[in-house]
Amino acid sequence: MLYEKIKEYIPCCEQEENDRRLMLSFMDNCNNYLLRDNTVAHFTASSWIVNKDRTKVLMIYHNIYDSWAWTGGHADGEENLLHTAIKEAVEETGIKHIRPVSEEIFSIEVLTVDGHIKRGKYVSSHLHLNVTYLLEADENDELHIKADENKGVAWFDVKTAMEKVSEPWMKKNIYEKLIKKVGELK
Fold first, then answer.
1. Could you state, in chain order, the average pLDDT of each consecutive group of 10 residues for the chain (186 residues)?
2. pLDDT for the residue 118
3. Is residue 26 within 8 Å of 33, Cβ to Cβ?
4. β pairing state of 126-137 and 41-50
5. Cα dihedral: 60, 66, 67, 70 (round 10)
6. Distance (Å, whole) CA 139 – CA 4
C-alpha cells in the first residue's frame, strides 16, 4: 500500500523526484523501513496543518530542533502514514477538530536528523523518509503542548511562521514548498 502510494505520487520538483526514487529503492532493499529499529533510515509522517481559510498554519516549537516546526512522528510499524500524521498532530497540539484536506500524499522528502538525546538515550544521526499530509483544523480549538516533544503550540499567518522558523534548510526547501503548494490549491 505505502509503496504503491509513493510510486504513484507525482513529484512537484526535483527534490521530490530524487527523494521518491531514494524511498522506493530503500523499500526495495530493506524490510524494516517502518521501524526506528532501522537506525539508518525509517519512515515518518508529518502534517502541514492549515486553518479553514488556509491563511494560517499550526506549528509546534520542537524541543530537539529548537525551532518552530510542523507536527509529525515515526511510523513505528504503521503503514497508514495518514493515520500516523493525524495521531501525531492531535498528540502534539491538543487540536480536536482536524481532518485531511485529501487522503493523498501532499509532499515527500528525505530529511537528515542529527544525533541527539531522546528520553535520556543518544540517538545517532539518521534519515527520515518523510511523507507529508495536508490537514485542516479549527483554529478555535484549545491547544496544549506535549512537554516531552515541544515547548509551544501556536497558529501563525504564513509570513510570521516563516519568520519564526530557525532551521534555514527546512524553511527554504520544505516549508516554502508546502506554502506554495497550498497556494496552488486555492
1. 97 98 98 96 98 97 95 97 98 97 98 92 96 98 96 97 96 97 90
2. 86
3. yes
4. parallel
5. -40
6. 34
CA distance 163 to 144: 22
Pull the grid cell for residue 74: 515515526
For 129-179, write each residue's pLDDT tens digit: 999 999 999 999 999 999 999 999 999 999 999 999 999 999 999 999 999
Say if CB 49 and CB 132 are below 8 A apart.
no
Q: pTM for the whole thing?
A: 0.96
Is there a contact between 13 and 177 (Cβ–Cβ < 8 Å)? yes
Closest of 10, 21, 3, 2 to residue 106, by C-alpha: 10
Contacts with 36 (C-beta within 8 Å, 6 or more apart), sequence order: 42, 74, 76
Q: Which of 115, 108, 117, 112 is nearest to 128 (CA)?
A: 112
CB 107 within 8 A of CB 178: yes
CA dist., res. 65 & res. 174, Å (int): 15
